[in-house]
Amino acid sequence: MTFLPTIPPPPRSDLHPLPGTTPLTPLTALAPPVIYYLALLLLPPFPTHTYRTPIALLRNILGLISGLLFFRLPLKHHVPFSIGLTYQLALVGLYGGCRVLDAFFISPYLFGLIPRRIKYHHAPRIYPTTEKDGPPGGADAESYFSLHFLRHGRGEAVTETATTDSGWPHGWLDRMSWAMELELSMRGAGFTWTSADVRHTKKTWRPSVRDRVHSIIVHVFPVLLVSWAVIRDVYTHYLAHGEGFDSLPLNLQLILTAALGAFLMSAFSLGHSSFAIILSPLKPHPLSYFPPLYTARVWDLVSVRGFWSYGWHRLFSRLFLVYGVWPGEWLERQLTGKTQHEEADVGKVLGGFVSSAFVHSFAAHTVVGGWQGAFGEAWFFAGNGVAVVVEEGVKRGVMRWRRGRKYDGNGNGEGKGRDGLGRWYDGVVGRMWWVCVLLYTGRNFARGWVQAGLVTEMAGL
């Protein structure tokens, strides 16, 4: 029976975990989220003031233990048979630890915030049926389906409204549901505390299970297969004998970078749709609700900022907000003397990208045996942060120059509607700009993945 796979698979020789780490066990993997859940049960205030202090103390102890165990996961353990899962373990550990600290210490004690549940209601809406009137469901629906590789099928055009709970869970069953919803709210649904994780639109489209299955079979799988075939081909012919990423000619570097990006984007869509299908029988429970993962079509984006704001997922955005954007804004105001009411856009942008750089480099360092060679992702995100700041400065300068010349045109792309200052080629230039920036700086990301062995594992070798 040698044709059967080994369970578990044998350790990978090209995985270089942190020195002193041990293989992950089921107990060490389950302990942090289980303890986190127990702590969340005690997070909403109880209707009675009795035992409030002991409950808060127990909650904080459980939260602290959970956070420490999350942080400990990637520093003490690895997945011996997978570089990718070891990388993901680091992301989960760091994200989970930061999330716990936010929920039990930063938000309650610094901002007096305990998240309240948001309930989303979807009322059917009548959409145009003629081509002249526009796409079914409107532009929002079209964007949703295009980015999720979906087509209009048996889904439903709806108007989304949100209501926030005025109180807290009633009884232990409601409290258990509340805690589970919050623990799984990374997908961007259900709580005021996580509202930054997604962008909601009033007019949207609720895809059916059939729509999602069609998406996976007809659109996501082909993208995955084509991008995987490119990755495997480049690796087999040019990297299989230990050559470094920089040994590739520039055109192959860009092709590999684009293939990795397409693979990741479609893989996220696959995971999102798959979980939505699995949890669909729970309707109308909030756990069955999955907001759009991406909120703009790639070909509609005309800036680097637009890509990261609308064209990519926002699953880590709460982490980047609390640990990057807010500190960055604070630092800019301290250095420039700006007030709380003035925008600190440079600090906001750079803070968000620096925090993202650290998160991804932290994950990379767990699969290359240390920090040396783990900064490819950091350079990628730092480069994109600088690109956003530069493009915003150039954009404002151009608009100011055009306004001075009193230009009055029809406009196009992002310039459209800006007092008639847009020009027809703005969208073309913007698209060329963001694609070039993502591909060129993305070479740093691809270089890090080649060095870490992630490309080797993705190629199936």
Overall description:
By secondary structure, this protein is mainly α. 57% of the residues lie in helices and 5% in strands. It contains 13 helices and five strands. It has helices at 26-41, 52-76, 83-110, 138-147, 171-183, 209-239, 250-279, 304-311, 317-336, 345-365, 376-404, 426-452, 454-458, and strands spanning 22-23, 77-78, 118-124, 156-164, 203-206. Strands 3-4-5 form a three-stranded antiparallel beta sheet. Strands 1-2 form a two-stranded parallel ribbon. Helix 3 (83-110) crosses helix 10 and helix 7 crosses helix 12 (426-452). The radius of gyration is 24 Å and the shape is globular. The two termini are 22 Å apart.
β-strand number: 5
Round the mean pLDDT to the nearest integer and report it: 85
Q: What does the radius of gyration come to?
A: 24 Å
Mind describing the biggest β-sheet? 3 strands, antiparallel
Quaternary organisation of the protein chains = single chain
Strand order of the largest sheet: 3-4-5
What overall geometry do the principal axes of the alpha carbons give?
A: globular
Poorly predicted runs of 5 or more residues = 129-150, 407-417
Percent in helix? 55-70%
| SSE succession | EHHEHEHEHEHHHHHHHH
Distance between the termini: 22 Å
Keywords:
461 residues, mainly alpha, three-stranded antiparallel sheet, two-stranded parallel sheet, 5 strands
